[in-house]
Design goal:
This protein is mostly beta strands and 166 residues long. The chain is built from 3 helices and 9 strands, in the order ββββββαβββαα. It is 11% helix and 45% strand. The N and C termini lie far apart (47 Å). Bound molecules: manganese (II) ion (MN).
Amino acid sequence: MPKPLVYRVQNHAARRLHHDFRLEIGVALKGWAITRGSSLVAGEHRLNVAVEDLVLDYIDFEGVIAMGYHGAVLMLLWDRATGEPDGDCAAALATGSAALTLQGEKLIGRWRLERMKSRLCEEHVSWLLVKSHDAARERGDLDILEEQPRSVLTGRTVKDIAATAA
Ligand code: MN
């Protein structure tokens, strides 16, 4: 039985609000930025782009970090859980396809991470986060992002967190 992985989703308010999907691989949190956010809709493909690893110390970070010239970064801890990979997740990711089951507070069920074929000149590697046809929602159902926008850590919204930094 593979070792469960720590998994987090942070709502990251940058130029545009997006989700950072994070998985504990080895000693770091691997990350993917999901432009349109996570989805519970069966068969839905969400484009995500690999981003820099994060040290495990920041796993439950929520709040605002001043970034000097670049302004401030706001993070809301949107979901947390352990994920159960089908086998060795690091090895599966290296091959470009990994399946896992999440038991989050918001994201529950099975997903696949699929690496897209990329051109050599591309700076960032694109992946797809694909929701499996398990106990998922259907198209037209309420969007989990609209239904549950609050932090799993503090119950705050992005607006609440922004207000504390003002
Ligand atoms: Mn981000």
